[in-house]
């Protein structure tokens, strides 16, 4: 696990979105669920804060709000595996390369977002990520 400290370049706020409608349709038809995870703009990622500037993000507040309403909130220390453990475990199964992005986990409170929603992801010590879900439907 100590090796993980030397290979992580930095940390960023990100969101790995899921299209539940596509996922359910695929499941119903006995197809792979992958289409529910691989659509345009499905993995928003903010600016990467180099470890040299931020240190390893092993504790600190993590949150997601939608239209100013808090939906998810927790502490990085509550993760089942911290980022160093995640990289260590993944590197035993996959060939990790410079530039790979690993998205970890999320606090409880996953929910629906719709066109027009404004989303803010915040992780203590990292630049926040703000984005919207397309134009509001009229």
Automatic annotation (TrEMBL):
SUPFAM superfamilies: FAH. Coiled coil: none annotated. Gene3D superfamilies: Fumarylacetoacetase-like, C-terminal domain. Residues 2-129 form the Fumarylacetoacetase-like C-terminal domain. It holds the Pfam family FAA_hydrolase. Keywords: Metal-binding. It comes from the Bacteria. The keyword Transcription regulation does not apply. InterPro entries: Fumarylacetoacetase-like_C (IPR011234), Fumarylacetoacetase_C_sf (IPR036663). This is 2-keto-4-pentenoate hydratase/2-oxohepta-3-ene-1,7-dioic acid hydratase in catechol pathway.
């Amino acid at each position: 696990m100590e090796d993980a400290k030397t290979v992580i370049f930095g940390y960023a706020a990100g969101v790995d979105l899921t299209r539940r409608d596509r996922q359910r349709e695929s499941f119903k038809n006995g197809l792979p669920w992958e289409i529910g995870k691989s659509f345009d703009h499905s993995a928003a990622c903010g600016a990467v804060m180099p470890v040299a500037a931020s240190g390893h993000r092993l504790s600190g507040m993590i949150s997601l709000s939608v239209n100013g309403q808090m939906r998810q909130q927790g502490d990085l220390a509550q993760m089942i595996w911290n980022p160093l453990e995640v990289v260590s475990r993944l590197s035993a199964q996959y060939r990790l390369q410079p530039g790979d992005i690993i998205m970890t986990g999320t606090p409880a409170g996953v929910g629906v977002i719709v066109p027009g929603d404004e989303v803010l992801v915040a992780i203590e010590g990292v630049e926040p990520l703000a984005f919207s879900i397309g134009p509001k439907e009229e």
